[in-house]
């Protein structure tokens, strides 16, 4: 083109008067725009450990790791920031709507990508008959809160709530003498054992 476009000339004059458009980061902290999608940060209190966020994460950046040892079971939820694409699907589709939030933290550069993660751990409830993982305790208690008085209609939810409130005995060690019997009705049971109890 022979002549500079008028629009470009206008921008050049504005830049001369107002100064550069770019920020001075890293010499001066940059203030992100409202609604900026930065580091997803899980909330230990609000997260129930259901793992729904890992299912919807398009980058497979959320790892769900279940560990069972000596009758104690835990679930770790790990956000790997080196894989994250900051799409906010985990925040948008979180079961409790508060389990994880994208913050405006953007400076996540590291020399060791293995250190770029956040992790929270949740206690898992095991089947007291066969030892199978049922669900995170917080997830069952969250369901109990949602159900209100209807909790009494579900033996698993009711039983977990009772143990949590110390109304009934502590968790019993899982047994492996399948099949579960009618007398196991009030033990915390996985769906498979529950079928055996009531068949
Ligand atoms: S509560 Fe939300 S953040 Fe926690 S595991 Fe479930 S979906 Fe993910
Ligand atoms: S922001 Fe997107 S890519 Fe990152 S952890 Fe959440 S769902 Fe996965």
Describe the structure.
26% of the residues lie in helices and 19% in strands. By secondary structure, the protein is of the alpha+beta class. The protein folds into two domains: 93 residues, Alpha-Beta Plaits; 73 residues, no CATH class. It has a four-stranded antiparallel sheet with strand order 2-3-5-6. Strands 1-4 form a two-stranded antiparallel sheet. The longest helix is centred in the first third of the chain and has 13 residues. The chain starts with 5 loop residues before the first helix and ends with a helix. The mean pLDDT is 89. The site of one iron/sulfur cluster (SF4) has 13 residues, from α3. The site of one iron/sulfur cluster has 14 residues, from α2.
Provide a short characterization of the protein structure.
The protein folds into two domains: 32-124, 2-Layer Sandwich (Alpha-Beta Plaits), CATH 3.30.70; 127-199, no CATH class. Helices cover 26% and strands 19% of the residues.
Strand content: 15-25%
According to CATH, the fold-level topology of the largest domain is Alpha-Beta Plaits
CATH architecture of the largest domain: 2-Layer Sandwich
Largest sheet: 4 strands, antiparallel
Specify the number of helices. Answer: 6
Which shape, going by the Cα principal axes?
elongated
* CATH class membership of the largest domain: Alpha Beta
Overall helicity: 25-40%
Integer count of domains: 2
> Mean pLDDT, rounded to whole units?
89
Query: What is the end-to-end distance?
Result: 83 Å
Low-confidence stretches: none
Q: Determine the structural class based on helices, strands and strand pairing.
A: alpha+beta
Pattern of helices and strands: HEHEEHEEEHHH
From the alpha-carbon coordinates, what is the Rg to the nearest angstrom?
A: 25 Å
Bound ligands, named by name, code or SMILES: iron/sulfur cluster
Order of adjacent strands in the largest pleated sheet: 2-3-5-6
- Please provide the count of β strands: 6
